[in-house]
């Protein structure tokens, strides 16, 4: 079974177990809504697998229906698994040339996206040359024709940045800015691209200079998505070496939002960030002249 199928199956299993518990208790959806409380419409969506209940909601559900400790523990286990999806790259890429379309779909459904990158420039800001060189280092490696398609798809995603109805916030470390996938000219063009995108009204780009006093650690990058649809809660994606992880649990998402806030305190923005990029470019040019 594909990883995505397992995720869906896990959520449907949780929905079926919650529905089964309510049916066995003889409590109607209307009455359960009063006991928890959750709206009756949301209870219907949860039981059909269309909505994912939070861990506190599942705990209240079990308590309201006098579930045993064993049943409650099982429901908590199913909920925890449903809230954190870990999808190995080998499974995600199996039979697919690239994943840019899936990422674009996720981005298209968000009204605000906050992206922290500690290793490379974020994909939504990359130049074509930078993207081609970066994707060319992927493991397992792309087939030549797939690499060209992946680069084109990544560039196609970038049109969303120019949609004034969406908000994009980026935090980029100095190490990510200086990571060098090719000749100096590749970085010069990339820094110019960042400086240009930073002038858009719906885009905020914060740079975290080397030597800045830390207010938080940053062991890996992540992205926080705030869906345009109020029916869905914010979620976080993390790209690890072996897999992609998606976090839905509100308490866990709150940890990432707190970390974002702390890291933002370390960043420079607007004119100060533009001067920093100009300084980097001046120093890089001087080394090749």
UniProtKB/TrEMBL annotation:
InterPro entries assigned: Cro/C1-type_HTH, DUF5753, Lambda_DNA-bd_dom_sf
Pfam entry (one): HTH_31
Domain spans labelled HTH cro/C1-type: 18-72
SMART domains, per the entry: HTH_XRE
Identification of the protein by name: Transcriptional regulator with XRE-family HTH domain
Organism of provenance: Kibdelosporangium banguiense
């Amino acid at each position: 079974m594909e990883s995505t199928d397992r995720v869906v199956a896990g959520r449907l299993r949780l929905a079926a177990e919650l529905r089964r518990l309510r049916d066995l208790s003889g409590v109607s959806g209307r009455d359960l809504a009063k006991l928890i409380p959750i709206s009756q419409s949301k209870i219907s969506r949860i039981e059909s697998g269309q909505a994912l209940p939070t861990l506190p909601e599942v705990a209240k559900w079990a308590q309201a229906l006098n579930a045993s400790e064993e049943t409650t523990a099982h429901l908590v286990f199913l909920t925890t698994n449903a809230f954190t999806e870990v999808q190995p790259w080998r499974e995600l890429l199996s039979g697919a040339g690239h994943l840019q379309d899936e990422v674009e779909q996720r981005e298209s459904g968000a009204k605000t996206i906050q992206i922290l990158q500690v290793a490379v420039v974020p994909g939504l800001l990359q130049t074509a040359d930078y993207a081609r060189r970066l994707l060319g280092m992927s493991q397992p490696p792309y087939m030549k024709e797939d690499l060209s398609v992946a680069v084109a798809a990544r560039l196609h995603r970038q049109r969303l940045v120019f949609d004034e109805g969406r908000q994009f916030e980026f935090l980029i470390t100095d190490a990510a800015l200086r990571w060098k996938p090719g000749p100096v000219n590749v970085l010069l063009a990339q820094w110019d691209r960042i400086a240009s995108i930073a002038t858009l009204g719906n885009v905020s780009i914060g740079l975290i200079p080397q030597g800045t006093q830390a207010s938080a650690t940053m062991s890996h990058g992540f992205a926080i998505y705030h869906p345009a649809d109020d029916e869905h809660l914010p979620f976080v994606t993390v790209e690890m070496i072996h897999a992609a992880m998606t976090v839905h649990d509100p308490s866990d998402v709150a940890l990432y939002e707190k970390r974002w806030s702390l890291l933002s305190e370390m960043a420079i923005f607007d004119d100060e960030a533009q001067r920093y990029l100009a300084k980097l470019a001046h120093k890089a040019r001087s080394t090749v002249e």
